[in-house]
Known about the structure:
The structure holds two protein chains of two kinds.
Chain A: H1 3-32, E1 34-37, H2 39-44, E2 52-59, E3 65-66, E4 72-78, E5 84-90, E6 102-109, E7 115-122, H3 138-148
Parallel strand pairs in A: 1-2, 5-7
Antiparallel strand pairs in A: 2-4, 2-6, 3-4, 4-5, 6-7
Chain B: H1 2-29, H2 42-65, H3 72-77, H4 84-89, H5 95-116, H6 122-146, H7 170-198, H8 204-235, H9 246-271, H10 275-297, H11 311-335, H12 350-380, E1 385-386, H13 389-409, H14 424-444, H15 449-464, H16 479-504, E2 506-512, E3 517-520, E4 523-534, E5 538-549, E6 555-557, E7 560-565, E8 568-573, E9 575-579, E10 582-591, E11 597-605, H17 609-661
Antiparallel strand pairs in B: 2-11, 3-4, 4-5, 5-6, 5-7, 7-8, 9-10, 10-11
Helix pairs in contact in B: 1-2, 1-6, 2-5, 5-6, 5-7, 6-7, 6-11, 7-8, 7-10, 8-9, 8-17, 9-10, 9-12, 10-11, 12-13, 13-15, 14-15, 15-16, 16-17
Amino acid sequence: MKAKHQRLILIIAALIAIIGAGLIAAWTLRNQANYFYLPEQMAATPPDVGQSVRLGGMVQPGSLATEADGVTVNFMVTGNTDDAIPVRYNGILPDLFVEGSGVVAEGSLGTDGVFVATNLLAKHDENYVPKELEGMGTAQAATMAADTTIGLTQ
Amino acid sequence: MIAEIGLAALWLAAALAVLQMVSGAFALRAAPGEVNPLAIYTRPAAVVQALLAGLAFTMLLWAFAVTDLSVKLVAANSHSMKPMIYKLTGTWGNHEGSMLLWVGVLALSGGLLAAFERRLPERTMGATLAVQGFVALGFYAFLLLSSNPFERLPVPAMEGSGLNPLLQDIGLAFHPPTLYAGYVGLSVAFSLAMGALMTREVTPAFARVMRPWVLGAWVLLTFGITAGSYWAYYELGWGGWWFWDPVENASLMPWLAATALLHSVAVLAARDALRTWTVMLGVLAFSMSMLGTFLVRSGVLTSVHAFAVDPERGAFILALLGLNIGGAFTIFALRAGAVSEGKRFSVSSREGALVFNNVMLSAILAIVLLGTLYPLLTEAFDVRVSVGPPYFNPAGAIFAVPMFMVMAVGPLLRWKEDSPRRIRSELVLIAAILIAVIGLVSFFGRLPLLPLLGLGLAAALGVAAFLPLRGRRLTRVPVATWGMVLAHFGIAVSLFGMASEGAFTQERLAAVAPGGTEQVGDFTFTLQSITPVAGPNWTAIEARIAVSRDGGAPVILAPQARNFWSPAQATSESALLTRWDGQLYAVIGNQAADGRWQIRMWWKPFVTFIWYGGLLIALGGVLAIIGRVRVDMMRRKAVSLGEERRADLDALSAQPVAGDQG
């Protein structure tokens, strides 16, 4: 085997591996990417039960309730329309998580139609907004900003 | 005045980068063996530029130390009440300051290269420094035109607005500078690769020059990633140690490329093979550093790292990225054909194993890169997705598992050509351990596939790492070989920690009334009291939790929920109880309506091994550097001794002639 052939074989092997990686990535991404839903989107076209997705919106005022165990909370998330998605979360609420604030819930839809969140992201200072909340309606954004920036110096 | 000196130094440094670039380019025009009269400015320009960039950074450090509120950056990011150490670390806890640090380290490494590297031909050196100047110039332009750290306020602020409390941590003092130094060390590898490519000097000598830079950068990246992971683990209070966050990936990708590069450089230095591949990886590794900088600094991502959300800056870095990477790959495409093939080797040889792992590392890099960029791409089409562990873990493992298997065997093979039969007994041993551990573990409990594989591979790798030492006199094993053994063993240790954490973590989340008792794993914990406490710039609620293992003597853990007031932000301070076989991790949450407090506890067996492993890997790299530099010094000394002797001999043989004339 000549040196030139060896180089060719190396290049081909590397290309196969990289293309393989690309294909595996594309395939896995299609199945595993975590799509973002607004409440109205989730109400109109709900994701499969158990598929992990992200739900972003506002915590409906008056809907936040803690269960007897003290660590499970239930609340409704609303968006630009009247649709509201019930969410259940078992865990420590993020700082500055209050009714009326913006939230992104990671988790999946249960069979009973309740969104079971495994993680909650909330806006917790003026420099850190979950990216998903940026595109919300301006009125909402304003309310949200007013609600979540209380006590800030700026 | 301080700020003006800094700004002037920065402008002068930029001018010197131009000089370095132009003068270095003239070196290319010199005939071999000659020196172009205009090329002599290259090295001095690089050295002085390093001093000036260092001066600029010192001036900014000073402005932060004295909290000069007439400087916009200080006013926006510091506060006179902050502890001194966080005033100083705050210098790079913001966009402009961190970019200045980036450029400073870049100039410093260019200066070191120019001052001390004498092994390469002057033409190659000129080309290398020209490339280094070009890269630096781009970043000077970025600083001076779009993110000037020394900008004054028309009216000095009354008080600064403070630093993100998450960043007020001792981890921050070391994390960014180490990562930056790592990124930037790869810039030297990149410049050297481009210089060698342009002057057709892709030789083992070039590889030996490049190796300490690659090793150094790799050690710093390893250390930076390890520290960053531990920081995220205890500071964020989520109990995880790796989130596949784009910012974490931004540091992982250069590390993967640097790992591949480091092994490929070793082949080039020892065997004169893999020439173009090494150059390619040099370009790739620095591209990943630039991409990392772009992802972190441009504001396309929202995270604690993205200080600036300014589209102009993002566009600027993207343009720099395109210019450098595009230019490099163009030169590569034009010149790669001219680099002659290196030495041949058979598939079952150490080179073969290294090439296989290089390719696997590149494939993992591709997986991480695609997963990181995918959300950005889909966002352009208004589809919002996030990509997390369900993607990265299985897709990465497809390539990581074969890589670890070959890694166990590779160091046992000989260079150039070897038969697997020669190392049959070792192969059998490694395979037996792998199968035995997997069998044993799955006999006692059902585990998910990846942690199971991880445990088996960790055991096999842990033993395999030491096999290269078999049959050798330990006192005579080169330091660099010890480095390799240690680094490979570190991988096994880290893998064990990850697998164990993934497989055996136990969690308890409960609302506990003061005096109440709960159980997690072997531990019982009792909430003793909840008290308010105050720090220099925060107030907090602190829980005192008595923890005892199997009824042993109780230990007090005190997790806090802190509220900072400038800027106003709440953070969760976890409390950790470290034992040799794991860590207990406690977080306090909110108070329920009935007065009970939420407490979250994890028992994470052997989780600390993840970071011990990282440190071992870095230490292995340090040993490799020491070993290589020592061998190099000895070689230099031998060469200079030889030359002296030859000069003496010449002088002796010349003397009779002189005597005749006298």
